[in-house]
Structure to design on (529 residues):
């Protein structure tokens, strides 16, 4: 699924202008990492792409369909083709892992067929298959909030696999994880993305991971695209300018202090 | 402390605002007026204590001659409470969803429902019982209807407040994957609120059992009817038995509810 963002602007009711006429084209199957300092509009752009925010101007097309123009059932059908992975996992903590994974079918099959009590045999088997894929089949019956952060993010990925996804939006998927768990989640996410030839747009603050996993780096600053290149072509001065620091050393220090991780 | 910052040090005593003075004076006026109108005197309290002693002397030992009738009435009281609370809780859920900011379909619906719930809460259960005794006649049905109204007034408010406190992120994730509004409520909001709903409902059961005892005093069924008759006919031994039975049942219900709450909230 390709993405075409044309002149997108987003101003919140309090007057904060987050996106200022942003243009971006992402081809089907491309892996893009969005970079930029806090407040530059990365997460807002993802929310706009999901149709969770109303655009102040411009248009976003996913697979040729304008997300802003879709309503009701059509919007839900389009969203069911978009997989999302969030920083805080966004799972229903006091339900079982299995039930959270089944919720991935809500957009396709509706409520009754997505509840453990009333879902089809096919959905049950698919949920177990998705859990096997992320290596958590043995935890299917556990309460979700009893799992570690890395395991919860895997559950979120399994939930995404339950959908018929064509594109993945990942908003700082490893920001709440330790480096080892973060790398495991990134490996799993991008393995799935490559297996299924999915388009992926991922917001990251970890430059090392960004350059390792992305085919293309897009830098946002004050609501505009100011950098767009492949990871092997990005320069230290470009990154330093993107995060408004004097040098890469300053940038690494600010990441080490956790300043850039605060969402 | 430097010389410059000395002027900014807050004083130990802050002068109350005009609003605080108005509240304090109003409170004192009502309090003093209440004391004087109640005609509270040491003499009355001493005489009252003597009367209370006489009551207990004539009530002891409690009579067990009509224990079967009392037990049956107590069961009727419990039935009223459980049936009333069950219907009340079931009706409270949709009402709360209409009252909560994050689930109500429209601001006008929300304001209207909040006012309906506030009205239900403002009218005491005894008044509801009197109204329903007129409407459906004497007996447990009037009591059940009164408890339903009282439970909606109590539960719908607390359910709505809990719904508004839910973490919006799991619901947002379901919405982002194509879930409908109903699916978000059933899949994310209700599961998160469920332990709190159960705890609130159990408080309602405790409240309803106490209520159901009193509702009988106005003819709405249950053990209250037996208690009124016993008191009016000066059968104090029987009245004491009823009071003790009520005490045991209310404490038992409270302990069971406490145990269930402790289990579900962990």
């Amino acid at each position: 699924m390709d993405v075409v963002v044309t002149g997108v602007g987003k101003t919140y009711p309090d007057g904060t202008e987050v996106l200022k006429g942003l243009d971006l084209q992402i081809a089907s199957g491309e892996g893009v990492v969005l970079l930029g300092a806090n407040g530059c509009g990365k997460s807002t752009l993802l929310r706009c792409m999901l149709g969770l925010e109303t655009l102040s101007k411009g248009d976003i097309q996913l697979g040729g369909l304008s997300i802003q123009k879709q309503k009701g059932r059509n919007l839900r059908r389009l969203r069911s083709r978009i997989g999302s992975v969030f920083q805080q996992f966004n799972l229903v903590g006091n339900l079982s892992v299995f039930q959270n994974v089944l919720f991935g079918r809500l957009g396709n099959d509706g409520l009754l067929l997505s509840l453990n009590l009333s879902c089809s045999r096919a959905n049950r088997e698919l949920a177990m298959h998705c859990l096997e894929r992320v290596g958590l089949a043995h935890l299917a019956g556990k309460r979700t909030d009893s799992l570690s952060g890395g395991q919860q993010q895997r559950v979120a990925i399994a939930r995404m696999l339950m959908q018929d996804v064509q594109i993945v939006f990942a908003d700082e998927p490893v920001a709440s994880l330790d480096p080892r768990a973060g790398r495991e989640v990134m490996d799993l996410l991008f393995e799935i993305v490559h297996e299924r030839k999915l388009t992926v747009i991922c917001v990251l603050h970890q430059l090392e991971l960004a350059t390792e996993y992305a085919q293309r780096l897009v830098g946002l600053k004050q609501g505009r695209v100011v950098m767009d290149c492949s990871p092997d072509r990005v320069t230290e001065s470009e990154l330093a300018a993107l995060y408004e620091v004097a040098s890469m050393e300053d940038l690494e220090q600010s990441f080490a202090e956790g300043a850039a991780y605060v969402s | 402390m430097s010389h410059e910052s000395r002027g900014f040090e807050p004083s130990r005593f802050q002068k109350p605002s005009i609003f605080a003075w108005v509240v304090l004076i109003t409170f004192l006026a009502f309090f003093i007026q209440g004391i004087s109108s109640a005609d509270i005197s040491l003499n009355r309290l001493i005489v009252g204590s003597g009367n209370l002693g006489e009551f207990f002397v004539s009530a002891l030992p409690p009579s067990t001659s009509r224990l079967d009738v009392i037990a049956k009435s107590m069961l009727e009281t419990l039935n009223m409470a459980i049936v009333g609370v069950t219907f009340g809780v079931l009706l409270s859920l949709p009402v709360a969803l209409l009252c909560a900011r994050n689930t109500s379909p429209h601001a006008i619906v929300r304001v209207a429902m909040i006012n309906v719930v506030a009205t239900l809460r403002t009218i005491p259960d005894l008044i509801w019982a009197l109204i329903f005794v007129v409407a459906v006649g004497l007996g447990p049905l009037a009591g059940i209807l009164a408890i339903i109204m009282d439970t909606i007034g109590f539960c719908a408010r607390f359910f709505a407040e809990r719904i508004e406190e839910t973490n919006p992120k799991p619901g947002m994730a379901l919405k982002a994957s194509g879930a409908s509004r109903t699916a978000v409520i059933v899949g994310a909001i209700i599961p998160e609120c469920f332990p709190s709903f159960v705890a609130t409902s159990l408080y309602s059961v405790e409240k309803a059992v106490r209520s159901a005892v009193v509702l009988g005093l106005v003819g709405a069924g249950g053990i209250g009817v037996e208690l009124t008759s016993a008191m009016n006919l000066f059968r104090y031994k029987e009245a004491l038995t009823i009071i003790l039975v009520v005490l045991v049942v209310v404490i038992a219900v409270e302990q069971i509810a406490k145990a269930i709450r402790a289990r579900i909230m962990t």
